[in-house]
Amino acid sequence: MRFQALLLTAALGLGGCFGAPAPQPEGVVDLQQTMKAMGREWKAISQSDDPATIANHLAQIHQLSSDASRAMVRKGEQADYEDSMAKFQVALETVQGSIAAGEFDDLEPLLADLDALRKEYHKRFKP
Ligand code: HEM
Where is the chain membrane-spanning (predicted)? Predict the structure, then answer.
């Protein structure tokens, strides 16, 4: 199990370098396109039970959510939106941490937590 965790950590490291999409340049975030890309990554996670594959898609979502956090939302809601996106990223990092530590048994509930945040924030911010 330890060796498996090591291998996975190495794969995660590479995924972090080569798997994540390039960040969008400052000031030109198309939130709808970024969210569509997040939707594709999320779907891929829901179709996989391989921790390394899930970890790669989580790394993509992390980068995409960083891009998304620079997008403008409705007037007066920007600070709340950025705060929510930061909370979402903390929850995401919890799942990434579990995979890196080789703790695969708890993935389902952690992914369910992420999904709950997605739903909550969509209710709050989606036009
Ligand atoms: C795994 C997490 C998430 C996924 C898979 C996801 C996916 C999506 C999808 C598929 C859309 C619809 C895009 C379209 O119009 O076709 C969308 C829209 C949106 N999402 Fe997310 N989302 C996630 C997390 C979040 C979070 C954490 C926030 C805010 C803190 C957020 C805020 C929004 C907003 C504001 C829109 C409307 C964008 C627009 O049309 O201008 N999403 N999301």
Answer: none
